Fold each of these.
Amino acid sequence: MQIMAIELNDQEVLTPPAHSATVMVLRDSPQGLEVLMVRRHGNSNVLGGVHVFPGGKLDALDCQTPASQLDQSAETLAASLGEAALDAATGAGLYVAALRETFEECGLLLHRELPLHMPAELRQHLKDGMGFAAAMAQLGLPMQTSCLKPWARWITPRVPSVTNRRFDVRFFVALAPAGQEVLHDDHEVTETVWLTPEAGLRQYWSGEIGLVPAQILNLSQLVQHATAADVMNAASARSPQLVEPESFVNEGERNICYPGDPRHAVTRPLWAGPTRLVFRNNRFEPEGGLAALLG
């Protein structure tokens, strides 16, 4: 498999970051904790050829989901994200976007005790042009937002490193639904793969897959957990982390620093592990190399 070369962006983006949601879907396996990753289509203008967690931008329709379809109130959902300025409709919409994008990109509907024929029926409704919320309502399926736990919020800086767009991404974690088959869409996503966090980082280091900083550092955090339940419990026990990367050039190399780094405005680290990545060898590396990512 050919890994797409990463081209650094030097343009300042003046538009506000787009609200987005992404989900780290987790399961336990004989190899240990695994997370689902998808490979974006090589022709995509956003992270083409790179392995990411399923996700995408918030749609207006996500914010218009009727309260009767939600298993938690919009106010509760917005409050759970820990953002004082976030309105209820947008907060609830981000949860719906997370559910929708996970289904659209890898075929998994995050829903407990789902009849096995339902994903295929939902997929057909979407293929026929029905919106996600409308299709779920047609099938009598509530949005089980309680399947999701907020994990972090990553806001792209004004000079993004790997794209000329800005995103305000809410990361969620969720347990893989039992009995459902992963099925990528072959449009936005050309591959789905379950990886232990360690395997994902090792494959990145050996050049087998491409990753960008948010995926690298989230995998590095997941390495510290033994089971999917451990991750879900960790998410429940804390507020979502706010991550606002800051970048600078040092001796011709792009550096991206994170909370706790001496060059970052926030002095308190958010995680145990690297607080800076340097772009060299056509990839983002921490000082200390792979061993630093694996803890």
Amino acid sequence: MNKIIKEIENRGYSIIKNFLNKKEVNNYKKLIFKHENKNRRLYKGTPARDTTDKIIYNLQNKDYKFIKLISNKIIINIAKYFLNDPFYGFLPNSKPNYILNFFNARSSGSKLDLHIDCHIPFKGKNIFMMQFVFLLEKSTKKNGCTVVVNNSHKSGKFSNRSEKKLTFLEGEPGDLIIWDSRLWHGTTANKEKKSRWAIVTTFSSWFIKQKMDMPKSIPKKIYKKCNNIEKQLLGFSSIPPKNENERINTKRGYIFPKLLGK
């Protein structure tokens, strides 16, 4: 834990080798292939690079096993260290109060320019968003691996897309790559025309708006399997009230409403 935390703080990222074993990798790949939508609809305004990437959105809605993956104790302890609000108040500090912000599987196609995912560049030790990427297939320079600029999370600036001092985060199936969302990162182009599947998990502090409305979209059969911590990770403890007659605080404990939108 200390080694991982120091690497993320100092250079902006850390790599945990063999986080998933071969059996786990194969099981998650089977789930990916099961839910891959080869005829997915491209909405108006879809970024050009997304038309060539293979993407499965909202893994939390596809199978409970994906939720189980990100509620792993090691994952929770790392994310909790960086993202927990110490003044949350409605839950013990020993419990996570950060949330799942975006959850998909992706196989790179076109090159992705350097960028930051937190949208607002800022300096300081506190982090409000970070990525956990589980590699399911070999990741290399030739097939679209992640590239980063070491220490760029400390710059307080938007990415310089002309930066040449890049680190290539190559890895094997089962490796877990974690980075501070302020880190300048992108991908190389996938020139091998073979898949490079990875599970991309974005966590954020509870007050950052989720990319998808997870509390309203979660299937009932999956919701029923979730424990209190997993429901909280999905955002059920930080649903804004409709008005002041309901309550005046977005934060809640393990007091969950009826399943929304069902």
Amino acid sequence: MKKIIVTGANGFVGKHVIELLKHSEHVVYALTTHIGDKKNDERISWHEVDLLDEKEVSDLFKELEAPTHLLHLAWDTTPGLYWHSTSNVQWVRATLSLIDAFKAAGGRRFVGVGTCAEYNFTAELCHEDETALSFTTMYGSCKNTLQQLLSAYNQKKCFSTSWARLFYMYGPNEHPLRLVPSVIQSLMLGKTANCSHGNQIRDYLYVKDVASALVALVESDITGPVNVASGIPYLLKDLVNEVGCLMGETELIKLNAIPSPQSEPPMIVADTSRLTNIVGWKPTYSMKEGLSETIEWWREQLVVQ
């Protein structure tokens, strides 16, 4: 039985990770900045902690009983701000302190979460060992730096690290300003969903599949970076039109209504060979299934409001 710490446990991805781990044989320490109405059960215990505060982290590890694994999801991902925010540097420092505390408590395996923004997008497919890395944004640079620092830990016996590079995601609990939820909400309100030309090619994975892949990575002994993505190229115009079709509101999808940045990469797609062949994981949801669940979730939120 593993004793798994999950940081960012109440976030977009974290909520789905916790839901999966509820049905596992593992003990889970769920870390969040605000517990709210969360309740402990036989598998999950919730802990309120500011990971940027070293004293709070130190006090936390006095409470935890022999954690063995750590899945680190927490980071600043405020839309429109996180790309160039200096908070990324704070999170590098905080993560290294967290790892030190985890190791001192006897921890054996750390899985960090990176981003496709670590890559230079000049290649057709982003491959963990072959594609050049980019240091053009604070977010991507800090994630890259942290992953390279973590690689040194793999040289130490009894401690392994892996790095999940997440690509594009969608699903319940996503920030409303992101593409899929913004289109869904516009259509629900009978408003036009203004989009760019939509010829950008992106790699999208339903968040429940993302969570499943992360749990599989935690449970594995694979080290180093692993792309977590579908490996399937989607035209953004096909994605938003699928949303419109599922909601019966295709006439409200307006392509070429807003400009797209000239510097925007035409294609961002992952090579998922490591995830599929080494970790042994494959997606469960099709795009249609994932979008249908997401649309239903947003409908429920509208009723609640």
